[in-house]
Amino acid sequence: MRKKWNEEAKLRRLLEPAHLPVRWQVTRRKVAGRIDGAIAGEGRARFAPLPGLTAVTRDVLRQGGALTELHAVYGGLASGRLLLVGEPAVGKTSAAVLLLLAALDYRENAEAEPDKQARIPVPVMLTPFGWDPAKESATDWAAGRLSREYTVFRGKGLARARELLEKGRIALFLDGLDEVDRKLRAAMLSALADADFRVVAVSRARDLAGRRQRLSGALALEIQPVCSQDASTYLMTPLPDPAPSGWQELNRRLLDEPGSAVAGTLTNPLVISLLRDIYADNGGHPVDELLDTSRFPSTRSLQDHLLAQVITAAYTPRPNRPRPRYSPETAERTLRYLATQVTHAQDDRELRWWRIPAWTDPRPRIRLAGFVTGLLCGMAGFFMLWWTNGLVWACLLAPLGVLIAASQAARRHSKVTDEKSLPSAGWRDIFPPGAVAFGAFVWLFSGTVSWLVYPLPAWLTYLSMLPLGFGATLVSSRGYKLVAGTYLGSGSGPQYDELREGLSRRPVQESRAVSPQDVWRHHIRLRLVLGLMTGVAVALFFGSVVAHQYGLMTGLLIGGTAGLWQCLMAGPVGNLGVAAALTAVQLSRSEGTPVRLMSFLEDAHRRNLLRVTGQAYQFRHTWLRESLTSSTQPEGRLGPS
Fold this sequence. Notes:
Structural class: alpha/beta
Radius of gyration: 30 Å
Number of strands: 8
Shape: globular
Number of domains: 3
Low-confidence stretches: 632-637
Mean pLDDT: 85
Number of helices: 27
Helix content: 40-55%
Strand order of the largest sheet: 1-6-2-5-4-3
Strand content: 5-15%
């Protein structure tokens, strides 16, 4: 968690340079119940204060505070239910990320006292998309997400994650409640009220208005707009001393003229960070232009000017920074298309790359998969039949083989958009020691039996049974879907999940979060290679047996044809990453987006236009997504002017 969120905080520029201070007050909005329900008296507290912290009191809450005090409230709140609310883009998610890091720091500082540390939960931030409280409790849903998104749960699965949640060893930070349907949000809040772990929920204040939208026992803290002094320190600290005259004048208006357009605009973290990104490096835009009161007479006009340059600022070359791989025009066109697709999604607002194949007409890809597979397998089959049965039979049967291969490949490729066939932690999940040992046993046992039963050389029996051991390894691990429905996939059904889970248990070698890029690499590097290896195994099995009986050339042709067919079906034809890559080519021709769309997504993440939430991307701000899907800027999206 520390590694993931430190990296994410750096990309969001929350750590370097120093972040804008977090200021909060107990909200006066009617988004939560009475404070007494959150700070229950002694003996009625649902959660005891974390070791080293004291119970939250009215006096503490009345004073408000910064990040340190926010962590004290999080750790000392009797109800264990905390809401962070505020205006759009006021810095709610940034405050939640900084609170999460502060909670991790606090836990690490207790390392010398294991008993004390064990009573401090590990904070985990998730988004609520895909959760239906009518079907899953908060604990079951969170356990499922943890088991998919963190490698520490590989081999332990849902049971271990659920146990940690039920014992309060994990605290749930939930961001994005304001992005789900109102009725669904009410059901989520009701489910969270009964959870056994601490909850920190982040939402726009207006989306929690109404009695049914309240989290029982919660304390609602409102994140405050940035004060002029904090904005001044944030903007002026990176500049040389003395600062350029334009910056000095802007700073004077910010501090001394509270009614000016400059002071009214620089109360929002997004706008403040944009101003620094656009002008601090002096990338051809002198900050003096913002001082023109005839051009920018109001807060709205100045705010709109800065917000309109979000993408341009991210993709403008800067001194001492890598040159952007994409032009601002290409980036804006691509992000506009992505925002449209995400907005049209019915269930959530996350950008999952494995849904990309559903964005275009699949028929061209299906035809391509069928054509290439049919052509290659047809050519291989033609030469095999020519060698074994003569030219006439080859000419008669090869076209039939082409049609069968093409139709099967097309059917297979049309079904690769299933998002459930997602990640493992890598090679260690496919080849855990238990599965490897089981595969070795199957290989040795089947080879020995074949040698005793059939009058074949020992080297041939063990060589021909090697693919069977390889298939047994895949079937008994999380690679079973790669060989399901093939010669090597006998026993790959869900009825063997319990045995498979037992053989896959192993000590965790590396604990990390599974990112969208990890899922992509899993499909392109791991699943694709394993699919090709499956084809090689099939070729080895058939080729070795046929070569012994009918000669080396016949064995090569028959084994090669069977292996090529399996290679294509288990490899590129059935690979979700390949389908997404082909879709990106289609989109490049029709929409003008980059051919390497996955690389663009990761680049946009590094430029802080997208953020990572588990295995998916999200737009940095709701305002950015909404502005990209409309011809005019959303009115009032960043709060009062």
